[in-house]
Design goal:
The complex is a heterodimer of chains A (about 290) and B (about 325). Chain A has about 290 residues and is mainly α. Chain A has one domain (about 1-215). Chain A has helices at about 1-30, 40-55, 60-90, 95-115, 140-160, 165-175, 175-180, 185-210, 220-235, 240-260, 265-280, and strands at about 130-135, 135-140. Chain A has a two-stranded antiparallel sheet with strand order 1-2. The longest helix of chain A is centred in the first third of the chain and has 31 residues, at about 1-30. The termini of chain A are far apart. By secondary structure, chain B is an all-alpha fold. Chain B has a domain at about 25-240. Chain B has helices spanning about 1-20, 25-50, 60-75, 80-105, 110-130, 130-135, 155-180, 180-190, 190-195, 200-230, 240-250, 260-270, 280-295, 300-310, and strands spanning about 140, 145, 150, 230. In chain B, the strands form 2 sheets. Chain B has a two-stranded antiparallel sheet. The chains are: A mainly alpha (about 290), B mainly alpha (about 325). The interface of A and B includes residues 37 and 227 of A.
């Protein structure tokens, strides 16, 4: 029982970090019809921005985190939208998807060639000391990761639902034409969405990299899990992506511990196919009622 | 009519060039040319899925893996390549149907995600099931096909064998694309809503396109088995699927000769850019993104645009060239 609790909690902790990446992915998909196949790399790169800030400019850790966040929003938010999404979106969704795949290769290879192909240690935000929690040994890092990422989700939800800008962003995503008529600056709202996505990805990076180490190939797994989490949860809802992320985190840990460690990476596929067959709109999603 | 004659002449010239190209070359060059043909077959299949049916598949490398491993296991067990390969193709076709069925039930780019996850699964199976696949060590020592009078043990005969298979595969694809089915694929890509309202079962057609495309992947895999005579899981990862996808896009998705051009570029470019060492993939990725911004229709599209610029033909009703569209 204590082992189960332990596995469950650490699954929730990693799952909540996946959820951050999945929420960003879903927001950008909704607001700009951009299926970002480089989302995993968007979580990999900010960790290297932080390492560059510390190693190259000699910043203290907290300043390097701020530097990494700002640089991510500039490069993965603003530049991504201006240089890739805006010129390619008129050519169609599939062309844009392929461009993001090429971008994923570009980011991965750039980090590999210009920084390092080896996994780099990354300073932890929180201590990794074990803590006794109803008989289960849980690391403080896991608990704090869970709390921090859930707080980020709460803040984001409040922002989107309770502020004027947030509601304008939702309007712009749901019906750009009507939003424009009602005086919403749709272009600016879409830009905000990209900035928020970059910020969510870098926060996910700061939380998960101490666990996985910083490596150029980290994005492959994280990306796949973020996509599947968004789809499984129902990608037209923030809470869908959250539920999807938590579910995958927990199931992944349970599979690895109790079923098979060799095939744990197959879990997303199984989950995805079950969801498509049983509930294609996702666990929390609402049906769109159209097949073409 | 004239245009058709010129096109056939061009095809004949290209074929003659393909026959003459490896003569007197070192065996490494022959190897590179053969792998170009193999990847052209894989890209041709994916072109049917992407270019004609408008769905992204990120599992072409895993279909190559299925084809390669089935052919390898059967030929190692003493079967002839010509018997083993059709079975491998059939297996890829069936797996394609099973995988595509759930993914294509819903709107959106679900096939992309399902195939991405499937590629991971195939990689895991190949690595973990050592009793069958040899695990990370892979399989080696597969015999090349022996056709009685014509044995393909040496590089040059094997090149011509691959060329013959490629021509047959291309003719079959030509037939598929020109058949009522093929026209349905096109209708589907241009305007799915209209295609559906005209009575096409869009889901079934897309599924068929994906399954046939997957079988072409299997054929490429069967050829890889004999070409390299050594296969391992790492040769069929997601990165390779992405590479084949980019071949299709670079050449020109939806055009018949695009995959040949695209796979040629992707196979030969590393040789040309060898001096850039590790930066090759960075340069390539940047080139692809720039191409997608300025010429999303690929190299074939650039060629067509240049041709239109220099040899422009008079058009009677330019407004009709697109056909009527509902906005």
């Amino acid at each position: 029982m204590s082992q189960f609790l332990q596995v469950l909690l650490s699954g929730l902790a990693t799952g909540s970090i996946y959820a951050l990446a999945a929420i960003g992915f879903a927001l950008v998909w909704q607001a700009a019809q951009t299926v970002n196949f480089a989302q995993g790399e968007f979580v990999m790169v900010p960790a290297f921005f932080v390492l560059i800030g510390m190693g190259f400019f000699g910043m203290p850790f907290w300043l390097a985190l701020a530097f990494g966040l700002a640089l991510s929003m500039l490069v993965l938010g603003y530049a991504f939208k201006k240089l890739i999404v805006e010129p390619i979106l008129p050519h169609g969704g599939i062309t844009l998807i392929i461009a993001t795949m090429a971008l994923a290769i570009l980011l991965k290879e750039t980090v590999k060639e210009f920084y390092s192909a080896e996994a780099q240690p990354f300073p932890a935000l929180f201590s990794n000391a074990p803590m006794n929690f109803f008989g289960a040994a849980v690391s403080i890092q896991d608990i704090l990761n869970l709390i921090v990422s859930l707080s980020i989700v709460v803040v984001l939800t409040l922002f989107l639902n309770r502020t004027r800008t947030g509601r304008s962003m939702q309007a712009a995503a749901q019906n750009p034409a009507v939003a424009e008529i009602l005086g919403v600056n749709v272009k600016r709202m879409v830009l905000y969405t990209f900035l928020i996505n970059a910020a969510l990805a870098s926060l996910a990076a700061f939380l998960i990299t101490p666990v996985y180490l910083a490596k150029f190939s980290n994005g492959e797994t994280i990306g796949l899990i973020a996509f599947i989490a968004a789809i499984v949860g129902g990608f037209n809802q923030i809470r869908g992506a959250l539920v999807g992320g938590l579910l995958i985190g927990v199931l992944d840990n349970l599979t690895a511990t109790y079923v098979t460690a060799q095939y744990r990476a197959a879990l997303p596929l199984v989950l995805l196919i079950i969801i498509i067959l049983v509930r294609p709109q996702g666990i929390m999603g609402t049906s769109e009622g159209r097949s073409v | 009519m004239m245009a058709w004659k010129w096109r056939w002449l061009l095809v004949a010239l290209l074929l003659a060039a393909a026959i003459a190209a490896p003569l007197g070359q070192k065996s490494y060059i022959v190897y590179v040319l053969t792998s170009w043909l193999v990847f052209a077959i894989a890209a041709m299949g994916l072109n049917l899925t992407l270019g004609y049916a408008g769905q992204i598949s990120l599992a072409q490398a895993s279909f190559m893996a299925i084809g390669a491993y089935i052919t390898a296991l059967l030929t190692l067990a003493g079967w002839h390549w010509l018997i083993a390969t059709p079975l491998a193709l059939l297996a890829c076709f069936v797996v394609g149907l099973l995988l595509g069925y759930p993914a294509l039930r819903v709107k959106g780019h679900f096939l992309a995600f399902v195939t991405l996850a499937f590629n991971t699964l195939v990689f895991l199976v190949l690595r973990n099931e050592e009793w069958l696949t040899g695990g990370s060590y892979g399989l080696s020592g597969m015999p090349r096909p022996d056709l009685g009078l014509f044995t393909t043990m040496r590089p040059l005969p094997f090149y011509y064998f691959t060329l013959a298979i490629t021509v047959v595969a291309a003719l079959a694809m030509w037939g598929i694309v020109r058949s009522p089915w093929g026209r349905a694929f096109r209708a589907l890509r241009e305007n799915p809503i209209r295609a559906e309202s005209l009575g096409l079962d869009t889901r079934r057609i897309t599924l068929l396109a994906f399954a046939i495309g997957s079988a072409y992947g299997g054929l490429a895999g069967a050829l890889v088995t004999s070409l390299v005579q050594f296969i391992e899981p790492a040769s069929f990862g997601v990165g390779h699927s992405l590479r084949i996808l980019l071949m299709v896009v670079v050449g020109g998705a939806g055009s018949f000769f695009g995959p040949f051009l695209g796979s040629g570029v992707v196979i030969l470019l590393p040789e040309v850019l060898r001096f850039t060492e590790g930066y090759y993939l960075i340069i390539y990725a940047v080139l692809v993104i720039v191409m997608l911004v300025y010429a999303p229709e690929g190299l074939i599209g650039i060629g067509a645009r240049l041709k239109a610029k220099f040899f422009s033909r008079s058009q009677v009703r330019a407004d009709m060239s697109q056909g009527a569209t509902l906005k």
